Amino acid sequence: MVTDQLEMTAARNKAPLHVVTGAFGYSGKYIARRLMAEGVRLRTLTNSIDRENEFGNALEIHPYNFENPEVLAGSLADASVLYNTYWVRFDHKEFNHDKALRNTLTLIGAAKKAGVKRIVHTSITNPSEDSDLPYFKCKALLERAVRDSGIPYAILRPTVLFGKEDILINNIAWMLRCFPVFAIFGDGKYKLQPIYVDDFAALAVEQGKKSGHATIDAVGPETFAYRELVEAIGCAIGKKKSLINVPPQLVYLIGRLVGAVVGDVVITMEEIRGLMANRLYTSSSPAGPTRFTDWMADHAGELGKHYSSELARRRDRRTGYDVLRKI
Q1: Under 8 Å CB-to-CB from 4, ≥6 apart: which residues?
Q2: 3-class SS of residue 259
Q3: Rounded CA separation 233/245 (Å)
Q4: pLDDT digit string (tens) for 4-17?
Q5: Residue closest to 19 by CA, chosen among 84, 113, 66
Q6: Within 13 Å and on the Cβ side, how many CA atoms surround 163?
Q7: What angle do CA 320, 305, 296 make, to 5 degrees?
Q8: pLDDT value at position 6?
Q9: Cα-Cα-Cα-Cα dihedral of 90, 92, 95, 98, to 10°?
Q10: What angle do CA 195, 201, 203 make, to 5 degrees?
């Protein structure tokens, strides 16, 4: 067995280098798992170099070093593919979209300097440089930077990712478990197409093997109006509740109150506006096969049992996400 492990390690060291940002996080971890199973040499760039992880010594760990582009480029030297999942969900006193934009531009520049052969870049559905929503505007600016880099690329545009470490879907379920009613902002008819995080990872790895350029809407096989999504979650976990339509500003204020209790940002006004503007809906064909309703049926017993905190994940850089979810 020891001999087999040594042979596997030697083979991995000779394999092409693939670099994944955030391999201890959410989508990055699923991408890293799939790449690891294929036997490539794997490296991650991360702000959480001490976080508990499942990969052990098989994964090389480098800090981002955004403040030192030369060192960052060195971390990307000889990379065949860079899978970029780095981003922030909302503006906060500890982080914001503008800084994330600058950091990602630095990453793209470092990839070009290092001679990275391909970039698989995570964006968002319906980005627009003309948008007044910073998330969608910055994502559009980064898409342009990737296209202008001269590096062959695949730009993946997911909507909502669902899976074991998800925040949005889990916390909807948590609120359905905890409160007698659930507030729907606006009419609830705006749509979204959730995609399973491992389907997204499979798509990313598949695109890492290709050449040329591609831009793909990474959407799942089911489309829901937001109200239908909440109803489906409630039905799956056995917590069907009254859904009440309220003004968006009131939902935001309710979210602020709940956030004060759990020590997190539950929802932002930008997220509400993005959903209501159908930014998470496209007419594209599904990019993954896993049905959200099937996945919920398999995970109903655990979904929403604990609140998932965005800020806890960013402040605690050592504990694994599965443990943080139970705080």
Answers
A1: none
A2: helix
A3: 17
A4: 554 555 455 678 99
A5: 84
A6: 20
A7: 95
A8: 43
A9: 60
A10: 80
Question: If you compute the radius of gyration of the chain from its CA atoms, what whole number of angstroms results?
Answer: 20
Listed as ranges, residues in the chain with pLDDT below 50 are 2, 6, 10, 327
Q: Which amino acid is it at 87?
A: W
Quick one: 132 exposed, middle or buried, by C-beta within 10 A (0-12, 13-18, 19+)? exposed
Residue in the block written with tokens 């997204």: 200
Helix axes 226-236, 168-178, angle to 10 degrees: 60
Angle between helices 269-276 and 134-148 (to 10 degrees): 80
CA distance 156 to 176: 31
Per-residue pLDDT, 33 = 98
Output 87-91 pairs: Cβ under 8 A, ≥24 positions apart: 87/122, 87/139, 89/135, 89/167, 89/310, 90/135, 90/265, 90/268, 90/270, 90/271, 90/310, 91/134, 91/268
Query: How do 17-21 and 41-46 pair as beta strands?
Result: parallel
Structure token pair of residue 129: 């440089």
For residue 163, is it left (φ>0), alpha (ψ between -120 and 50) or beta?
left
Under the phi-then-psi rule, with left for phi > 0, alpha for psi from -120 to 50, and beta for the rest, what region is 304? left
The CA-atom distances, in angstroms, between 313 and each of 47, 54, 259, 305, 317 are 11, 17, 15, 18, 7
Strands of 159-285, DSSP E: 161-162, 181-185, 191-192, 195-196, 214-218, 224-225, 242-246
